[in-house]
Specification:
By secondary structure, the chain is mainly β. It is built from no helices and eleven strands.
């Protein structure tokens, strides 16, 4: 089982940027497909982005629109989510998730595809 620890959240003004990190321990990232999810207060989880063990990536069509980039550093066993042009509606708690079996690509933004989750990091976009 892999342990996940997110960091990098904080308070940022609209239009600003943040880079979230998800450090994996206990297993190499190459063994897992990874996803980033978020949850705003009172709302369901939303799939933000995912990256497979083979580095294939997907993004939410609904709200990412070229603003976010997911990447992986194998040497650091870390997955990143670079978020630019942030909007108040991006506010929420951001979680990374991992799944050891291969996730079906077109399902990779669904929470049910992942077994291992971090505790999340809070992102607040406000002036």
């Amino acid at each position: 089982q892999v342990q996940l620890a997110e960091s990098g959240g904080g308070l940022v003004q609209p239009g600003g940027s943040l880079r979230l990190s998800c450090v994996a321990s206990g297993s190499p990232l190459d063994d897992y497909d990874m996803g980033w999810f978020r949850q705003a207060p009172g709302k369901d989880y939303e799939g933000v982005s995912c990256i497979s063990s083979a580095d294939a990536t997907r993004y939410s069509d609904e709200f990412v629109k070229g603003r976010f980039t997911i990447s992986k550093d194998r040497a650091k066993n870390t997955v990143y989510l670079q978020m630019n042009a942030l909007k108040p509606e991006d506010t929420g708690r951001y979680y990374c998730a991992a799944e050891r079996r291969r996730v079906t690509p077109w399902l990779c933004l669904q929470t049910t595809q992942y077994n291992d989750w971090g505790q999340g990091t809070q992102v607040t976009v406000s002036s």
